[in-house]
């Protein structure tokens, strides 16, 4: 019997290879004459031959010869098979599955075996992976400061979604990276505000966009009591440090290409703001920088640039924070820059936010008269803002609108949509008409503290702050009347990520080389 893989014919039971080939040829000839209907004698012979074939594996097969080499040998023998008998050629090309099948003697199985032999060369390597899938390794960042006191957090988002593995000969098609870039370019942005501590870790994708890999947000109320004492309280600092420890643990589990960690109004205004940041560095290893108000306004604009449509010619963007509120007037001409912050003509930062205003006037029991008092206070601050009238304001114009990025406007949108729980995907980018905003403010003002706390889009943490934010929003709407407002669930973190990625050139074809040192980003970008 001839081995279909190696062509060798080992001895078995004292019979020579020629005799076994002769016996098989006669059986095949009998089946031909009987039109595929073997008699009992031929069926028994086929069964005996099949059993001996399974029991007698050739030496090369037992040695584990790779499948590719066996196929190349079979193809070489098939190319030289002109001098071989037809029966032997068929025998050499028969697949192993067909030889070992228990129904080999059946006419239908014989026919299907012939079909498999006929189409074997067409199957090739279909279904076999050409390369093994490579799983990205997540290592601790080399540039992160080490701290023995920082805990290691177990994060359920540690699995990073990868692109499908490339096949051999398939080039890279990442339009935001060149050949010498790392597989994952991760950027991190942290914003420690008066009320919240927020972290984003993201990877650049299409031009101007990125994919969030990990995120964290916690209400810490760092500015609690700041307006009365001028200092950060011990409890507030403890809450912030605890949240920053979690952020540090998340950053240490990633290889971050570049990060920027900022602190805003609470640390700017507090007498012990610098001392608090020194404590943060000592206990968490994170080095935060205090940014000025102009930089904060520009970062808010950069984070919301994708929400400004091509038809807009004038936009007033505001960010109602915990301790301050930034307002930027944007005028867009015919030549629109890729950075929306370049179109800022006027900006201001009001020294009032939801935390400071609610502490001055009270946020639990807010009457319509108290609400109007808060609105008038913010209006007096806006009167000192020297800004010419905005084109399109105070009339129904499609080329002017407001953009609000804060917890106040996202809360209004969630209540308007009647969400069973807050959903960023449904809130971010939604449009609210002027009448809808007025209706939502009136609804919140009609609820008591318990009613606001019971709403899933507000909750007990914001129930005493949301009406103070609505008062700031109302003052802005009176200064710049607009038929519609767009809600942005984004802000400083997204602006930080966008600016860092743009500075590194990750969205350009000719990407900056890894050895390039990016320029300093402590001041506002121009």
TrEMBL record:
EC numbers for this chain: 3.6.1.11, 3.6.1.40
Listed Basic and acidic residues bias regions: 96-106, 152-180
Domain Ppx/GppA phosphatase N-terminal: 207-502
Uppermost EC category: hydrolase
A Pfam family: Ppx-GppA
CDD domains: ASKHA_NBD_AaPPX-GppA_MtPPX2-like
Record's keyword terms, sorted: Hydrolase
GO MF entries: exopolyphosphatase activity; guanosine-5'-triphosphate,3'-diphosphate diphosphatase activity
Biased segments, Basic residues type: 21-38, 67-77, 107-125
Keyword Hydrolase: yes
Region annotation Disordered: where it falls in the sequence: 1-131, 144-180
This protein's name: Exopolyphosphatase/guanosine-5'-triphosphate, 3'-diphosphate pyrophosphatase
Organism expressing this protein natively: Rhizobium tropici
């Amino acid at each position: 019997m001839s081995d279909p893989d190696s062509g060798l014919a080992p001895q078995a039971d004292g019979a020579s290879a020629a005799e076994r080939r002769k016996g098989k040829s006669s059986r095949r000839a009998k089946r031909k004459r009987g039109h595929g209907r073997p008699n009992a004698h031929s069926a028994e012979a086929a069964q005996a031959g099949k059993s001996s074939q399974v029991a007698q594996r050739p030496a090369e097969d037992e040695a584990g010869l790779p499948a590719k080499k066996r196929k190349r040998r079979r193809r070489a023998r098939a190319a030289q098979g002109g001098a071989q008998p037809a029966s032997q050629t068929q025998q050499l090309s028969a697949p192993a599955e067909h030889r070992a099948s228990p129904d080999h003697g059946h006419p239908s199985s014989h026919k299907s075996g012939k079909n498999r032999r006929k189409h074997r060369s067409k199957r090739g390597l279909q279904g076999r992976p050409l390369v093994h899938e490579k799983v990205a390794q997540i290592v601790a960042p080399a540039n992160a400061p080490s701290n023995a006191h920082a805990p290691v957090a177990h994060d359920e988002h540690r699995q990073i979604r990868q692109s499908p593995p490339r096949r051999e000969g398939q080039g890279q098609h990442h339009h935001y990276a060149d050949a010498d870039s790392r597989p994952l370019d991760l950027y991190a942005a942290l914003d420690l505000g008066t009320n919240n501590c927020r972290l984003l870790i993201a990877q650049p994708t299409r031009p101007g966009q990125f994919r969030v890999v990990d995120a964290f947000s916690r209400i810490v109320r760092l500015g609690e009591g700041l307006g009365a004492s001028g200092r950060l309280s011990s409890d507030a600092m403890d809450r912030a440090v605890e949240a920053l420890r979690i952020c540090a643990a998340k950053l240490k589990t990633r290889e971050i290409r570049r990060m920027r960690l900022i602190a805003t109004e609470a640390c700017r205004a507090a007498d012990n703001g610098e001392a608090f940041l020194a404590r943060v560095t000592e206990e968490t290893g994170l080095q935060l920088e205090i940014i000025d108000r102009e930089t904060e306004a520009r970062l808010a604009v950069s984070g919301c640039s994708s929400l400004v449509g091509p038809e807009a010619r004038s936009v007033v963007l505001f960010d109602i924070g915990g301790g301050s509120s930034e307002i930027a007037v944007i005028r867009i001409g015919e030549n629109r820059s890729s950075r929306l912050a370049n179109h800022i003509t006027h900006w201001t930062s009001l020294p009032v936010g939801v935390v400071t205003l609610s502490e001055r006037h009270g946020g639990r029991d807010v009457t319509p008269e108290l609400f109007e008092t808060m609105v008038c206070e913010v209006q007096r601050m806006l009167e000192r803002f020297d800004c010419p009238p905005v084109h399109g304001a105070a009339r129904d114009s499609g080329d002017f609108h407001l953009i609000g990025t804060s917890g106040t406007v996202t809360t209004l949108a969630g209540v308007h949509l009647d969400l069973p729980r807050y959903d960023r995907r449904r809130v971010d980018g939604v449009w609210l008409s002027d009448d809808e905003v007025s209706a939502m403010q009136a609804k919140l003002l009609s609820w008591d503290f318990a009613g606001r706390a019971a709403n899933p889009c507000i909750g007990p943490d914001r129930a005493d702050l949301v009406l103070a934010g609505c008062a700031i929003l109302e003052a802005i709407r009176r200064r710049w009347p607009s038929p519609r407002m767009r809600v942005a669930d984004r802000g400083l973190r997204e602006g930080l990520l966008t600016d860092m990625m743009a500075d590194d050139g990750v969205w350009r074809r000719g990407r900056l080389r890894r050895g390039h040192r990016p320029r300093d980003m402590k001041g506002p970008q121009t």
